[in-house]
Each structure stands twice: as C-alpha cells, then as structure tokens.
Amino acid sequence: MAANQLTPLIKTVHAATLVELLTHFEKDIYPLLKTAGLPEDILRSKSEFMPEEPIKHLLALMAEKADPEHYGNLLRIVIREYFIPKLLHHIHAPKNLEEAFNSLATAIIHDSPSAKISIEHFKGTPWFCRYKTKEDTKGFFWAEVFAILFTIEFINVMAKTHWLPTSVAVQSSNIEPMLEIFKGQSIQFVSDRNVTAIELSDSILNTPVILPASFKEKKASSAPKKRTYIETVYLALTPYLGQPSMNVNEAAKVLNTSARTLQRRLAKENTTFKIIRENIMLATSCRLMEDARYSLTDISAKLGYADIAHFSRAFKKLTGFPPKDYRNRFLDRST
Q1: Is residue 20 part of a domain?
Q2: What's the pLDDT score for residue 180?
Q3: Residue 234 within any structural domain of the chain
Q4: Which of 24, 50, 73, 145 has the most beta carbons within 10 angstroms of its beta carbon?
Q5: Do 266 and 308 form a contact (C-beta atoms < 8 A)?
Q6: Residue 221 lies in a domain
Q7: What is the mean pLDDT of residues 146-170?
C-alpha cells in the first residue's frame, strides 16, 4: 500500500515533547490540548504512536501565542536538542551529508511511517524534497515550517557548520510568518509548489559528517516495519481509548478524513469502526490486567468507563467471561 494511503502517525514520545513546549505559553495546557484534539493524558501515554493531525493543530495553536521569530527559535532548540539526537540512533556512520540524508530517509519512517523524503536533482542542482498532500490549513503550514527548520538544523548538526539555503520552495500559499522566522537571512522563498524543497549543492552533500563520539559506534537499525492502513488506524486511535464518547465522526476528525471516507475504507478492509474500537479496548484491558500494579477499578477508569460494572459488562460481552476471571487465569498461568 502506498505511503500516502496510510494514516499519518508520529511517535507519541515526540508528540509529548512538542506538548511540553506549551508550558512556554500557558500554565494550564489542558484547554489547548482539547482544542488541538489531543488526549489529556498524552504526557503519560504508553501508546507507541498517535495521529499526526492533532500535532499539526498544536503547532498552529502555539504559533498564535508568540511572534514568529520567537516561536521559530523555540522550534530550532527542540529540533537541535531533542529530535536530531533521537534520529541519530537510526543513522549509521555516514561519511558525508549525502549518505546522512539517505539514512535519514529510512530513519524517519521509524518515527513517522507515512513520511517520504528524498534528494532529487533539477537541472543539475540537488534539492532535499518532502512529499505531503497539500492542505490549506495553518497546521499544514506550521508542519512545513518545522520540516524546513529540521532540515537546516540537521545539516548544521551533522556537519558542525552554520549553513543556510539560498532557495526554498514551499507548498503553502501565505508564507508571511515564514519570512519573519528567517528575517535578515538571504533565503529566497517560492510558494504554491507541489513539494517542499530546499536547495542544496554538491559541495554541501560532499561535506564530511562529524558525529558526536557517543553516536559513532551505534549499530545500524533494522529496516522500519511496513505498516498497513488498518495497522495505522489502530495505532492512531489507541491513545484515545480513554474517551468512551469518541464516535466515528470524532475519530475521522483526528485522522484528518471524513466519517464517510473512514467507514468506506474500513469496509474495504472488511471491518468497522465499532470492531476496531472494541479490539483496541480488549487488547489494552488485557495488557493492563496482566500488570499487577493496576486494580480493575484503575483499569476501568483508565479506559474511560464510569465504573467497574460498566467495564465488566463490556469486557464480558466481548470475551464471554468477566475481567476478574481473565486476571485470575493469567495469574494462575504465571505462577
């Protein structure tokens, strides 16, 4: 299945790092989390992934709280101090920036399975390209800003330099805030393009990479797992399990699609939103019951049920026996 058919995901730990930026703007972050469409417990979530769409909303909401130049500097810091070091674990001893970019194209899929980046040549000039379906939204714009800042910081960290591109092509139409972020820097921006593209040069691509000593001996990571559409839907919706009121319309919103399209695509995969929701609940509740630290009352609350009785009825309806019996059977097998 093509990457653009997958539900766009981001690692939850990375999303949580961006959520922590909220503390620069608000003491009470929860109203903004709700507005962005993020689960309230995201900073404590054990889910591996979450949908990309609410994070794009979050980037746009934070942009409204600060001037573009200050916000751009905050994003640069979090990219340089958090995101790039995390990606270095997937990049194995590149000799130059061209090899580093080739490794990055694979490494980034570990953290965002639908991502697609590459080096392309136009009229003999190399460009770093990022492929996304264009949207006329503030969230899309700020995600594009993040990608541009990331690319620049990636080059500067890997080569220990202070490089800036001469030309950048962007998909967004209104780029005024972007010009503010790069104020005083001689970069030519061209809007309304089909891809986000940053002009490079052969000399930049041939620049030797100088990795921090602590990363030089890292083993090459395994190839990123290929995901199916259904897998990405499960991964995207799992963090929202604690919201029992979530219906197909709300699920479609966080997946950046319509309820009708979501139902049609699920039907094509021989399943329904109800089945997916029940399967996520069952898998999560079984995993929690296998952890003796959680009581059944804790688990029912964590899954968003009003009380343990509601949880027990839902679990028994799916399995044929109450959660207490499942826990006892598991504990018996473990002893």
Answers
A1: yes
A2: 94
A3: no
A4: 50
A5: no
A6: no
A7: 97
Instruction: Check whether residue 146 and residue 47 sit in a common domain.
Output: yes
Going by C-alpha positions, the residue among 87, 156, 97, 84 that lies closest to residue 126 is 97
As a whole number of Å, the end-to-end CA separation of the chain is 43
Q: Bridge partners of 168?
A: 189, 198
Last residue of a domain, one of 215, 232, 260: 215
Q: What is the mean pLDDT of the chain?
A: 89
Burial per residue of 136-167, b for 16 or more beta-carbon CB atoms within 10 angstroms, e otherwise: eebbbbbbbbbbbbbbbbbbbbbbeeeeebee
> Please, what is the Cα angle at 274 between 45 and 140, to 5 degrees?
55
Residue 20's domain comprises 3-215
CATH number, domain of 284, equals 1.10.10.60
The verdict on 150 and 270 lying in the same domain is no
Supply 165's token pair: 């591109």
Among 154, 180, 215, residue at a domain's last position? 215
Q: Where are the alpha helices (DSSP H) in the chain?
A: 12-20, 30-36, 52-63, 68-78, 84-88, 97-111, 138-159, 176-181, 202-205, 229-237, 248-254, 259-268, 273-289, 296-302, 308-319, 323-334
Amino acid at 24: H
Question: What predicted TM-score, i.e. pTM, was given to this entire model?
Answer: 0.85
Q: Are residues 211 and 246 in the same domain?
A: no
